[in-house]
Amino acid sequence: MSDRLPDLTTKAGRKRPSALKNRSPYIVFIIGLLAGALGVTSFAPFNFWPSYFVTLMVFATLILSSSTAKSAFLRGTSVGLGFFGAGVSWVFVSIDTYGQVGDLASALITFLFVLVVTLFWSVSGWLSWRLIQRFKHISPALLIAFSLLLGEFARSHLFTGFPWLLPGYAIQETWLFELLPIGGIWLTSAVVVLTACLIPGRLFSNHNHIALIMAVLFTWSAGLYLHYFPEKWVSQTGSIKTTLVQGNVPQELKWQQSTAASSLAYYEKATREHLDSDLVVWPETAITYFYHEVRPFLSPLRKQLADTKTTLITGVPDYQADTKTYYNAMWATGNGFGLYYKRHLVPFGEYIPLASIVGPILDIFGMPMSSFSPGDSNQPTLQVGEWAAAPFICYEIVYPEQVRRFVRDSDFLITISNDAWFGASIGPWQHLQIARFRAKESGRYLIRATNTGVSAIIDQNGDIVAEAKQFKRTTLTATVKTFSGITPYVQWGYWPVLLLLLITFILSYSSNKALSKKRIDEKKSLLKKRLYQ
User: Fold this and answer.
1) Out of 152, 197, 268, 342, which one is annotated catalytic?
2) What's the pTM?
């Protein structure tokens, strides 16, 4: 098969936007970069949702105007670089401030990270072009949407995954937010990508797009209906008075011995002032002593907590001497119990992938290495009095499937984090936004306690009930409601998304095959008329 598309219109009805066809590849690359960067404004803290649709429309247009698979790969790269370069720029803050490698090396490491996640968009562009050549009876817009979703799914799972800035997070301020309890972040992501690809597909292809139009109208209409006539998926069973303690300890001082002692003293004092609460929550590694060291030290506080029927949940590192392993843990004590070990560790932050190979390289740069081990995949919930709390430490809240598996056994969700690593960047706000989606998907209140903010309590609809100011040592008290029951997403997971895509593909194929047959019949009829004239 030739590596080039025939000009203008093929038998499958493909038209290339000529304005981009003959442009300098450098100009097209810059257009892709700018379009990609624009899309970041759809996410927190900006929340201007239309901009991400523009990003995806430009992505689809660039692929449709590509004359080779290589061109589609490079054009996909341009949009991805702009998007991730702007969207995850907060990674630089952590490496530059705490990585001990200097500005230049920090910029290089950040660029390499951005390049890795961009490759998923690059391959999506290449795959889109290939699929369009192979499947002539399926709408090119649908094939591009499918390829991009497949790339985003791969980005979310390969090498432990990086499911940050998925397409579905762009629609928090739209009706599509109401679809989360039905199909989760992957359903909203599918609708966003299908919607955005439809417009350039309709403009630059003579295919029948009725299947894609029906899928987009159906999902947006379903979101609109649920917005005005909300479905009650879960039932309230009780309430818990909850206090979050936000220590606001500078990251560079957090692990120093003098700071560790004074920080722990503050957390103890703040807790004793809120013993009228049912639950008090400290952030990730609020305690910087090991679990076995601090447990006896906190015995008086633990007894006082038990006497007042107050549960304390805190982050604490743990060391198992028999196996010589370290864990990032969450501990419940007082009127509750349980010790949870973090399962999804942050690559290069909490563990080093391929440590025997990468470790020496990082040593050359002078980067500190962490050596936490992941917890078991089958761990129980934490107990808070009579209630069960599904625990997630920092980065884990971005994994929808991990949250989904825990929901059935829980009355509410709790996540603790230390976003001090990312300073005043957009990272902590994106992290908070992701937590809101987990609450909406699961139909559960979500408690989010962080070191420097943003600490918040989020209700079962994904709305923020209470929020603490960032970079302030403070406490936040509010009522957390407990719920039972499960949403369709918790019950079925990915199946609604797969069903939507399967039906759309079948209808697209059948309608375009019928259109192709009609065109062939028309050409034969026209040819016969000319022969008999």
Assistant:
1) 342
2) 0.91
